[in-house]
Design goal:
By secondary structure, the protein is an alpha/beta fold. The chain has 18 helices and 17 strands. 38% of the residues lie in helices and 15% in strands. A seven-stranded mixed beta sheet has the order 2-10-9-8-7-3-4, with helices on both faces. It has a four-stranded antiparallel beta sheet with strand order 13-14-17-16, covered by helices on one side. Helix 4 runs parallel beside helix 12 and helix 13 runs parallel beside helix 18.
Length: 466
């Protein structure tokens, strides 16, 4: 499919057939970066498969077990085909989610104070930021590549210097920011590997609208979250790993299914071959086969068509946001990150502003959106680096409020110490289930709700996490 005069009709039909419940329940769903809505067709396919025969635990040779094993292995190959990866070079480890996929690498990577450093970009999800705790425990060097400019893009010059420095190890970055939608260059993978680094590419936010070929982008480790691509089932992610890189990892424990042989009395064990060595316990043998079904459904729609459709909706959203004004002429919203569709995905972070130009508490926006049947994400989106840059918080102040007598015991106390007007932003992310009317209705809602006057604050629940 191509984005042409008929594309809106194509996605309107998809909306009616697979996501009709959104209109039936009068919901506007704009949180695809959090999760894609569930297509009805995938639920029906799962019910048909599970109602058609018995599937058993794969760790044996019964007919039910063999049936499960075959479907799991088919799903593994299907993922490799989707990512254009050579099965001789890559394998797929199925995980509960993208966070677990990152942890598998973090806990087993050979970090060391003299070798095996960690390099992160300031733009990273907390699941990737957490890798630094394993590196710090091993007394390894931890580097951070900062932003440059006002679009929340990572500094290419700073990255170049970091990659060519004295230390080598693991370099982690997102193909697409889950905060701003910025797409960081995939070319960084080859550049880092050429400089002697292992690379972990977080593709969770990227894959729903971005194509990735591991023949052209030879990352050592790629993290994927499938419910973000096709909505169902949740609770299944993948670590797609170069076999050579996976062999360099040393797992700190073993579990059922990960070992070839073990002795309880003699206290020795031998790990199974990858990917089994990294799949702890019994895989979700009912959910994993649904990955193949979901990818078939997604590619029938067409990855290029989805990308063009979401880009068009994002452009319409950005243009509409830029035109929203209070009666006195002041902007109604502040957008963080790129203002256009070049070099970005369908994730838009913003704050609503009052008539005086002050940020409206994101909890008020969340409350009003919920009352209108609109699903967006509010908060800091588990990406503190992007939030700190967007709100221009000085590193010295961040260090001071995180320790000693300045340390706050609650999130709200931390926000007050930092002098922030709000606890985060509003994230709007159109996707495969949306049509043009959703964008227009959301823009109308913002104007109708916030242009005349900020809704009464009222009782707001305390912030519990960030």
């Amino acid at each position: 499919m191509k984005e042409n005069g008929t594309s809106e009709a194509v996605f309107a039909r998809l909306r009616a057939e697979d996501f009709g419940y959104l209109d039936e329940t009068r919901q506007i769903y704009l949180d695809h970066t959090g999760a894609a809505p569930v297509p009805r067709g995938l639920v029906q396919a799962q019910a048909t498969r599970l109602g058609g025969r018995a599937f058993g635990n794969p760790h044996t040779e019964s007919p039910a077990s063999i049936a499960s094993t075959e479907l799991v292995e088919e799903a593994r190959l299907r993922v490799l085909r989707f990512l254009d990866a050579d099965p001789a070079e890559y394998t797929v480890v199925f995980t509960a989610n993208a966070s677990q996929a990152v942890k598998l690498v973090a806990e087993a990577y050979p970090f060391h104070r003299r070798s095996g450093s960690l390099l992160l970009t300031q733009d990273n999800h907390n699941s990737v930021n957490g890798v630094r705790e394993f590196a710090r425990a091993a007394r390894a060097k931890v580097g951070l590549v900062p932003f440059a400019g006002d679009e929340l893009r990572v500094s290419p010059a700073a990255l170049r210097r970091a990659l060519t420095g004295r230390h080598r190890g693991l370099f982690c970055y997102p193909a697409q920011s889950n905060f701003s939608g910025v797409r960081h260059p995939l070319e960084w993978v080859a550049r880092a590997r050429a400089a002697g680094w292992h690379t972990l590419l977080d593709a969770a936010a990227y894959l729903p609208t971005g194509k990735l070929s591991l023949r052209r982008v030879p990352a050592d480790f790629v993290v994927a979250s499938w419910y973000k691509v096709f909505g169902y089932p949740s609770g299944v992610g993948s670590l797609v790993a170069r076999r050579e890189a996976l062999a360099a990892l040393r797992r700190p424990w073993f579990a059922g299914g990960t070992i070839q042989v073990v002795s309880a009395q003699a206290r020795w064990h031998r790990m199974a071959q990858a990917p089994a060595a990294f799949e702890d316990g019994t895989p979700d043998f009912h959910a994993v086969p649904q990955i193949a079904t979901g990818l078939d459904w997604y590619e029938k729609v067409g990855a290029d068509a989805v990308a063009a459709h979401v880009s068009r909706l994002t452009g319409r959203l950005l243009k509409g946001l830029s035109g929203l004004r209070h009666p006195g002429g002041r902007p109604l919203v502040r957008v963080y990150g790129p203002r256009g569709t070049e070099g970005r995905g369908g994730t838009v972070a913003l704050n609503v502003l009052d008539a005086g130009g002050r940020v409206v508490d994101e909890r008020i926006v969340a409350r009003e959106c919920a009352a209108a049947g609109i699903s967006v994400r509010t908060g800091c989106f588990c990406n503190p680096g992007a939030g700190e840059e967007a709100f221009t918080i000085a590193p010295r102040l961040l260090r001071r409020t995180g320790m000693g007598r300045w340390r706050a015991e609650t999130i709200d106390g931390y926000i007050r110490r930092l002098g922030l007007p709000s606890g985060g932003a509003v994230r709007v992310s159109p996707g495969i289930a949306n049509v043009t009317a959703d964008i227009d209705r959301f823009l109308e809602f913002l104007y109708e709700t916030f242009a005349a006057a900020t809704p009464v604050r009222g009782e707001l629940a305390p912030r519990l996490t960030c």
